[in-house]
Design goal:
Helices cover about 0% and strands about 50% of the residues. It is mainly β. It starts with a strand and ends with a strand.
Length: about 120
């Protein structure tokens, strides 16, 4: 299994970025996919996930971030708008392999990409 994240960078507050995560080594459409982030000195936290019922978001990003997937390209995206300095973190995509009631439960994700840095300047 490989998950390759890209699209991070430096952006001013209020700006936008689109992250991509291309997967290989498994049947992509069979799995829920998630995005997590880890700010400096903090724990990794849930951002968004997408499964057959639809997308789920952390409260901190609702209305600003959109997760989508393109199964034909084995790719999941995270469109991030109205970025804030507190969104600065390393962003990771992940494959959900174990069911927990909360789709944002990190324990459900056992395959992770390498991360992509997002920095939002004030």
């Amino acid at each position: 299994v490989q998950l390759q994240a890209s699209g991070g960078g430096l952006v001013q507050a209020g700006g936008s970025l689109r992250l991509s995560c291309t997967a290989s080594g498994f049947i992509f459409y069979n799995y829920a996919m998630g995005w997590f982030r880890q700010p400096p000195g903090k724990e990794r936290e849930f951002v968004a996930a997408i499964s057959r019922p639809g997308p789920e978001y952390a409260d901190s990003v609702k209305g600003r971030f959109t997760i989508t997937r393109e199964n034909a390209k084995n790719t999941v995206y995270l469109q991030m708008n109205s970025l804030k300095p507190e969104d600065s973190a390393i962003y990771y995509c992940a494959r959900r392999t174990i069911y927990y009631h909360d789709i944002g439960d990190r324990r459900g994700y056992n395959d992770w990409g390498q991360g992509t840095q997002v920095t939002v300047s004030s």
